[in-house]
Amino acid sequence: MRKHKVNLPSLLKSDDWSLFLDRDGVINQRLVDDYVKNTNEFQFTDGFTRALSDLTPFFKHIVVVTNQQGIGKGLMSEAALSTIHQHMIAECNKEGGRIDHVFYCPDLKESRSLNRKPNIGMGLQARKAFPRIRFNRSVMAGDSLSDMEFGRKLKMVTVFIDNGDPSPLPDHLADFRFKTFSEFAKWLTGNL
Description:
alpha/beta, Rossmann fold, 6-stranded parallel beta sheet, 7 helices, globular
Protein backbone atom coordinates (compact mmCIF):
# COMPACT_ATOMS: atom_id res chain seq x y z
CA MET A 1 0.00 0.00 0.00
CA ARG A 2 1.56 3.27 -1.10
CA LYS A 3 1.40 6.31 1.13
CA HIS A 4 3.58 8.98 -0.48
CA LYS A 5 4.97 9.99 -3.84
CA VAL A 6 8.15 7.92 -3.65
CA ASN A 7 8.24 5.71 -6.77
CA LEU A 8 10.27 2.92 -5.22
CA PRO A 9 9.93 0.39 -8.07
CA SER A 10 11.28 2.95 -10.50
CA LEU A 11 14.15 3.89 -8.21
CA LEU A 12 15.21 0.27 -7.68
CA LYS A 13 15.97 -0.20 -11.36
CA SER A 14 19.50 0.93 -10.55
CA ASP A 15 21.81 -1.60 -8.89
CA ASP A 16 23.12 0.34 -5.91
CA TRP A 17 20.25 0.21 -3.39
CA SER A 18 20.54 -1.24 0.12
CA LEU A 19 17.89 -2.87 2.27
CA PHE A 20 17.88 -2.40 6.05
CA LEU A 21 15.66 -4.77 8.03
CA ASP A 22 14.49 -4.76 11.61
CA ARG A 23 14.42 -8.28 13.04
CA ASP A 24 11.64 -8.93 15.58
CA GLY A 25 8.25 -8.45 13.94
CA VAL A 26 9.67 -8.30 10.41
CA ILE A 27 11.96 -11.31 10.00
CA ASN A 28 10.71 -13.37 12.93
CA GLN A 29 7.62 -13.45 15.10
CA ARG A 30 7.86 -10.94 17.93
CA LEU A 31 7.41 -12.47 21.39
CA VAL A 32 5.08 -10.27 23.42
CA ASP A 33 6.81 -9.01 26.58
CA ASP A 34 9.72 -11.40 26.00
CA TYR A 35 12.87 -11.89 23.92
CA VAL A 36 13.86 -14.58 21.45
CA LYS A 37 16.60 -16.26 23.50
CA ASN A 38 17.35 -19.38 21.43
CA THR A 39 16.73 -20.89 18.00
CA ASN A 40 13.70 -22.85 19.28
CA GLU A 41 11.96 -19.53 20.01
CA PHE A 42 12.92 -18.07 16.62
CA GLN A 43 10.04 -18.44 14.14
CA PHE A 44 10.09 -16.66 10.78
CA THR A 45 7.12 -14.47 9.93
CA ASP A 46 4.88 -15.98 7.25
CA GLY A 47 6.58 -15.99 3.87
CA PHE A 48 9.67 -14.08 4.98
CA THR A 49 12.36 -16.35 3.52
CA ARG A 50 10.61 -16.56 0.14
CA ALA A 51 10.07 -12.78 0.13
CA LEU A 52 13.71 -12.11 0.93
CA SER A 53 14.77 -14.47 -1.84
CA ASP A 54 12.56 -12.56 -4.29
CA LEU A 55 14.04 -9.20 -3.24
CA THR A 56 17.69 -10.24 -2.96
CA PRO A 57 18.59 -9.59 -6.63
CA PHE A 58 17.46 -5.97 -6.37
CA PHE A 59 19.67 -4.91 -3.45
CA LYS A 60 23.45 -4.55 -3.38
CA HIS A 61 23.51 -4.83 0.43
CA ILE A 62 20.99 -6.38 2.82
CA VAL A 63 21.61 -5.80 6.52
CA VAL A 64 19.69 -6.27 9.74
CA VAL A 65 19.67 -3.57 12.41
CA THR A 66 18.14 -4.78 15.66
CA ASN A 67 17.85 -3.57 19.25
CA GLN A 68 18.54 -6.53 21.56
CA GLN A 69 18.36 -5.22 25.11
CA GLY A 70 17.71 -8.78 26.36
CA ILE A 71 21.50 -8.97 26.49
CA GLY A 72 21.73 -5.76 28.54
CA LYS A 73 19.10 -7.15 30.90
CA GLY A 74 21.12 -10.35 31.38
CA LEU A 75 18.41 -12.57 29.86
CA MET A 76 20.67 -13.93 27.14
CA SER A 77 24.30 -13.88 26.06
CA GLU A 78 25.90 -12.45 22.96
CA ALA A 79 26.94 -16.02 22.08
CA ALA A 80 23.27 -17.10 22.16
CA LEU A 81 22.33 -14.15 19.96
CA SER A 82 25.09 -15.06 17.52
CA THR A 83 23.75 -18.62 17.29
CA ILE A 84 20.25 -17.28 16.55
CA HIS A 85 21.60 -15.01 13.83
CA GLN A 86 23.70 -17.78 12.25
CA HIS A 87 20.57 -19.94 12.13
CA MET A 88 18.54 -17.07 10.62
CA ILE A 89 21.13 -16.37 7.91
CA ALA A 90 21.54 -20.08 7.06
CA GLU A 91 17.78 -20.56 6.65
CA CYS A 92 17.55 -17.47 4.43
CA ASN A 93 20.47 -18.73 2.31
CA LYS A 94 18.71 -22.10 1.82
CA GLU A 95 15.80 -20.28 0.19
CA GLY A 96 18.06 -18.20 -2.06
CA GLY A 97 17.95 -15.08 0.08
CA ARG A 98 20.86 -13.15 1.53
CA ILE A 99 21.67 -11.19 4.67
CA ASP A 100 25.11 -9.60 4.46
CA HIS A 101 25.45 -8.69 8.13
CA VAL A 102 23.51 -8.32 11.37
CA PHE A 103 24.16 -5.22 13.44
CA TYR A 104 22.71 -5.28 16.94
CA CYS A 105 22.62 -3.05 19.98
CA PRO A 106 22.62 -4.82 23.37
CA ASP A 107 22.22 -1.58 25.33
CA LEU A 108 19.26 -0.83 27.55
CA LYS A 109 16.68 1.69 26.39
CA GLU A 110 17.60 3.97 29.30
CA SER A 111 21.22 4.14 28.11
CA ARG A 112 20.35 6.51 25.25
CA SER A 113 23.07 4.73 23.29
CA LEU A 114 23.91 6.13 19.85
CA ASN A 115 23.64 2.55 18.58
CA ARG A 116 20.10 1.95 19.81
CA LYS A 117 17.33 2.77 17.33
CA PRO A 118 15.92 5.32 16.74
CA ASN A 119 19.48 6.65 16.98
CA ILE A 120 21.64 6.12 13.91
CA GLY A 121 24.69 4.27 15.24
CA MET A 122 23.90 0.93 13.59
CA GLY A 123 23.40 2.72 10.28
CA LEU A 124 26.83 4.30 10.62
CA GLN A 125 28.31 0.89 11.47
CA ALA A 126 26.73 -0.55 8.33
CA ARG A 127 28.16 2.20 6.14
CA LYS A 128 31.59 1.70 7.68
CA ALA A 129 31.42 -2.05 6.96
CA PHE A 130 29.98 -1.49 3.47
CA PRO A 131 31.31 1.86 2.21
CA ARG A 132 29.13 1.77 -0.92
CA ILE A 133 25.96 2.07 1.17
CA ARG A 134 24.24 5.38 0.49
CA PHE A 135 21.47 6.14 2.92
CA ASN A 136 19.50 8.12 0.34
CA ARG A 137 19.47 4.94 -1.76
CA SER A 138 18.38 2.66 1.07
CA VAL A 139 15.11 1.21 2.29
CA MET A 140 14.35 0.67 5.99
CA ALA A 141 11.65 -1.96 6.68
CA GLY A 142 10.50 -2.17 10.29
CA ASP A 143 7.50 -2.60 12.54
CA SER A 144 8.01 0.15 15.09
CA LEU A 145 8.14 3.92 15.37
CA SER A 146 11.82 3.69 16.28
CA ASP A 147 12.53 1.86 13.00
CA MET A 148 10.76 4.55 11.02
CA GLU A 149 12.52 7.34 12.93
CA PHE A 150 15.88 5.62 12.33
CA GLY A 151 15.17 5.47 8.61
CA ARG A 152 13.98 9.08 8.46
CA LYS A 153 17.03 10.39 10.32
CA LEU A 154 19.22 8.75 7.67
CA LYS A 155 17.02 9.94 4.74
CA MET A 156 15.98 6.40 3.77
CA VAL A 157 12.77 5.27 2.12
CA THR A 158 10.71 3.86 5.02
CA VAL A 159 8.42 0.83 4.90
CA PHE A 160 6.22 0.19 7.92
CA ILE A 161 5.22 -3.43 8.54
CA ASP A 162 2.14 -3.20 10.74
CA ASN A 163 1.47 -6.94 11.29
CA GLY A 164 -2.25 -6.25 11.00
CA ASP A 165 -2.35 -3.50 13.62
CA PRO A 166 -4.47 -0.67 12.19
CA SER A 167 -3.18 1.94 14.67
CA PRO A 168 -2.29 5.20 12.94
CA LEU A 169 1.31 6.13 12.32
CA PRO A 170 2.46 9.73 11.83
CA ASP A 171 2.32 10.29 8.05
CA HIS A 172 5.77 11.83 7.89
CA LEU A 173 7.44 8.64 9.14
CA ALA A 174 6.42 5.98 6.61
CA ASP A 175 6.55 6.15 2.84
CA PHE A 176 4.78 2.80 2.56
CA ARG A 177 2.73 0.58 4.86
CA PHE A 178 2.08 -3.16 4.50
CA LYS A 179 0.66 -5.87 6.73
CA THR A 180 3.68 -8.15 6.25
CA PHE A 181 7.13 -8.07 4.72
CA SER A 182 5.89 -10.70 2.28
CA GLU A 183 3.14 -8.33 1.06
CA PHE A 184 5.74 -5.61 0.58
CA ALA A 185 7.94 -7.96 -1.47
CA LYS A 186 5.01 -9.08 -3.65
CA TRP A 187 3.99 -5.49 -4.32
CA LEU A 188 7.53 -4.39 -5.09
CA THR A 189 8.49 -7.29 -7.37
CA GLY A 190 5.11 -7.02 -9.11
CA ASN A 191 5.88 -3.41 -10.04
CA LEU A 192 9.51 -3.75 -11.11
